[in-house]
Design a protein that fits this description.
The protein has helices at residues 2-38, 40-51, 57-84, 106-126, 133-156, 161-164, 179-197, 217-236, 247-275, 283-297, 306-329, 338-356, 362-365, 368-401, 409-414, 416-421, 492-495, and strands spanning 204-205, 208-209, 448-451, 461-464, 469-471, 480-483, 486-489, 505-507. It has 513 residues and is mainly alpha-helical. Residues 437-513 have low confidence and may be disordered.
């Protein structure tokens, strides 16, 4: 009797220990995956920094840093409560400032927060190089703290109207990792913001788009690779647990499908871009194509067979190229192609999961129920896009009305780094080995520099080591120009701009008088 009681107690203790271990493993899994998703902010930062001109690099980098900084505060205060707090079919209204929130939800809070920060980051890329810094504080708070959380409550809380489905129907909105919930929100807000703020100066001339290249392709490529890496955790981590039977298989399937969809979309985008008028093998189009494929597979990466993911990626390549052209046709300036990647890819992903979901998708069943599911997901995608666009239009419209949305023409032409931050990403005084005639420390050595400080407006300045600057853009070729004690003859070197993406310094001290 005593042995039996002891054995019973030991089994209960063992079962309790196993349950604790399982719970801890699941918490650890979410936290690690959340940290990897957080690292995607680094990818966004590099991709965006490389895609803008050098004069706006610091500005775009600090905006990416503030995505997580402002986003964390907003999500802590109200975002998580609106998303997952008990409430009604529209919004949650408990757990503000994490008050009364069970500690068992802490890991869930962190994982969902990094998703919210991702949605906001998308917007900063679409509106890069001309947005007022103060406006960023406003829309970052509203998107992270309200727009995105409401959508999350609809789709993922368990009590939202998209989860419950239409009356008398066994339908639920399918979106495993956020093709609609995360990416359509970010892409739709970015589209509205870019449309209201208007294109960058010089982006469209006589109604035709003019390419404004970013200042470093390698940085963009590095950002793209980091984002691709992060998508493995973004999609795989959405299983939210790893201790239960079958969890490992689902996570593995999600990562494999993410790989296939992204890689096939990259190849298709590369070939399509080559086949168009551009006639070149575009690295940036390949990167964006891969990201579009990974965005699209978010919704169904856990339920598709690999061949379904391959088709999703194939269509994603066409989706990216098509949406990119559509945005340009509408005269919307999106420096990152964020709208094409996230809104276009997200909408396709919301539809693709209902087509290729194993055993129940349209391709498998082709019956009334499967088409109803397709329709309900389409309703969900349209509702998410509409909600986001309406709120974004009000928000950006008010900022525009009160002249708080866009920087002045002068600041846009000269660059936001110095005007807004006093921290140029590539300060000219920081270059040189300290020994040559071009050393910033060699004051009085007679070296004169030509510098296009306005990047692209045709104004070129002469600057000597004593920092005197003269506008020589309109000086007739052959005329003598004096800067302090240095004289030289103006020619094409001093009056022309070879590459508006850079602030190049040219030594003209040896030019003949």
């Amino acid at each position: 009797m005593n042995n039996s009681t002891g054995t019973h107690i030991d089994m209960e203790a063992l079962a309790s220990s196993v349950a604790v271990l399982q719970s801890n493993i699941d918490h650890f899994f979410l936290l690690v995956m959340g940290c990897l998703v957080f690292f995607m902010q680094c990818g966004f930062a590099f991709l965006e920094a490389g895609s803008v001109r050098s004069k706006n690099t610091t500005n775009i980098l600090i905006k990416n840093l503030l995505d997580v900084s402002i986003g964390a505060v907003a999500y802590y205060a109200v975002g998580y409560a609106f998303s997952f707090g008990p409430g009604n079919i529209f919004i949650g209204y408990k757990y503000f400032f994490m008050i009364d929130m069970p500690t068992s939800l802490y890991s869930h809070w962190f994982f969902q927060f990094v998703f919210a920060a991702t949605a906001t980051t998308i917007v900063s890329g679409a509106m890069a190089e001309r947005t007022e810094f103060a406006a960023y504080f406003v829309y970052s708070c509203i998107i992270t703290g309200f727009v995105y959380p409401v959508v999350t409550h609809w789709a993922w809380s368990g009590e939202g109207w998209l989860t419950e489905g239409p009356p008398n129907e066994t339908l639920q909105y399918w979106d495993f990792a956020g093709s609609g919930v995360v990416h359509v929100v970010g892409g739709a807000a970015g589209f509205v913001g870019a449309a209201i703020i208007g294109p960058r100066i010089g982006r469209f001339v006589n109604g035709k788009p003019v390419e404004i290249p970013g200042h470093t392709v390698p940085l963009s490529a590095l950002g793209g690779f980091i984002l691709m890496f992060g998508f493995f955790a973004f999609n795989g981590g959405s299983q939210a647990s790893i201790s239960q039977s079958g969890d490992g298989v689902v996570v593995a399937l999600a990562i494999i499908n993410t790989t296939l969809s992204g890689c096939i979309a990259a190849i298709v985008s590369l070939v399509l871009k080559r086949s168009l008028k551009v006639q070149s093998w575009s690295l940036l189009a390949t990167i964006n194509g891969a990201l579009t494929g990974m965005v699209a597979i978010c919704a169904g990466c856990n339920v598709m067979e690999p061949w379904g993911a391959a088709i999703t990626g194939l269509v994603s390549g066409f989706t990216y190229i098509g949406w990119s052209k559509l945005v340009l046709y509408l005269r919307v300036d999106d420096p990152l192609d964020a709208v094409a990647v996230h809104l276009g890819g997200g909408l396709w992903g919301v539809c693709s999961v209902t087509l290729f979901a194993k055993d129940v998708g349209v391709v498998y069943q082709f019956n009334e129920q499967s088409w109803k599911q397709f329709g309900w997901n389409a309703v969900g995608g349209f509702a998410i896009m509409s909600w986001t666009m309406v709120v974004a239009a009000i928000m950006f419209g008010l900022l525009h009305l009160f002249k708080c949305l866009r920087v002045s023409e002068e600041i846009e032409l000269k660059g936001l780094d110095v005007a807004k931050h006093k921290e140029p990403a590539y300060p000219s005084m920081a270059y040189g080995d300290g020994w040559g005639l071009d050393s910033p420390l060699a004051n009085g050595n007679g070296v004169v520099y030509v510098r296009d400080v306005a990047n692209g407006n045709g104004v070129v300045y002469v600057r000597d080591v004593d920092t005197e600057m003269k506008d020589v853009s309109k000086t007739p070729i052959g005329n003598s120009v004096t800067s302090n004690s240095n004289s030289f003859t103006a020619n094409e070197t001093t009056t022309g701009v070879d590459n508006p993406a850079y602030q190049d310094n040219v030594d003209v001290s040896s030019l003949p008088l």
